[in-house]
Design brief:
Neuraminidase; 4-stranded antiparallel β-sheet; 24 strands; Strictosidine_synth_cons-reg; arylesterase activity; transmembrane helix; Adipocyte plasma membrane-associated protein
Length: 387
Amino acid sequence: GSTYSSKVFRVTFLTLAMSVAVPLLGVTVLLDCPIDPQPISLKEPPLLTGALEPNTKLRKAERLWENQLVGPESIVNIGDVLFTGTADGKIIKIEDGEVQTIARIGHGPCGGREDEPTCGRPLGMRVGPNNTLLVADAYYGLYEVDPYTGKTKMLVSTKTPIEGQKLSFVNDLTVTRDGRKIYFTDSSSKWQRQDYLFLVMEGTDDGRHLLEYDTMTKEVKVLMVGLRFPNGVQLSPAEDFVLVQETTMARIRRYYVSGLMKGGADMFVENMPGLPDNIRLSSSGGYWVAMAAVRPNPGFSLLDFLSEKPWIKRMIFKLLSQETVTKFVPKYSLVVELSETGSYKRSFHDPNGVTVAYVSEAHEHNGHLYLGSFRSPYICRLDLQHV
């Protein structure tokens, strides 16, 4: 009798399994997928050894102004006054520990990601030569903001076509010392900031990526195209080239803006240990690069695993929302300091993002690193003398 019952069980189990699997497969085939992922070939991630050796140095940072700001992506200072832009569309001034809203480019309501396009999302921020704030708003474009009166002035609007195409996801900017030229990134011509995960997962090279705005002639030029999620930008100290972080490809490109190589481009750092977000100067003549996601080696890198498997990405995004998928990405914050030639000098880690989560920028000021975040409700400050 036992072989008969086990046979019945097997048949019943298989029938049940099929009855679940077939409709699920059918549904998955029929469901629309919001993205059209392309296979990407990444090299095996670098080993986390030497200057990249994992540590917990970022956990020495202190959280400041907790729950008084949301998602302070980029940070600048004028003297000892700090400025940042937040996820609820505000441009904020922090003076003597006091948090104050000075301006907003969009208008309310500001709540979830569906409000972002009207609310605005200030991302990259810089100080111009006349001490005004230059702000890249993901949805509205490039703006100049008076830090004292809060008056805003549009420089480049996302509504104006540039070489026949509108800007879709204005991300970061860097400015020459004389204020004449602003270099900025448009991360995609298809996706907006609220869908940045789609942009990473789709892996397409669809944006016009590095642009130049001339503040005298008011002209915008496209300098580089075909990057996969260009993000943070930084002019070199000699102002002869601009570095552009290519997030999806975990690398940094270099575009020459003056000198013999003008108009040419090459690779500055390839195959980084994480996905680079913003890049800023370090006091040693090198660069600080912030990464909100790492590619662990040794270990399992989800990004690398999925990179050449578009069909798995399709399945995932047919069934799950971006918010849900985000929860599967391991929290790990990493900041690296690069030398002027792009070699790794040192790295600060926070495995599991215990103190510093979702780090988007490392801004050095007065012996401290101020760490911005695109999601956390605080700014972190790390004392560089004591790490």
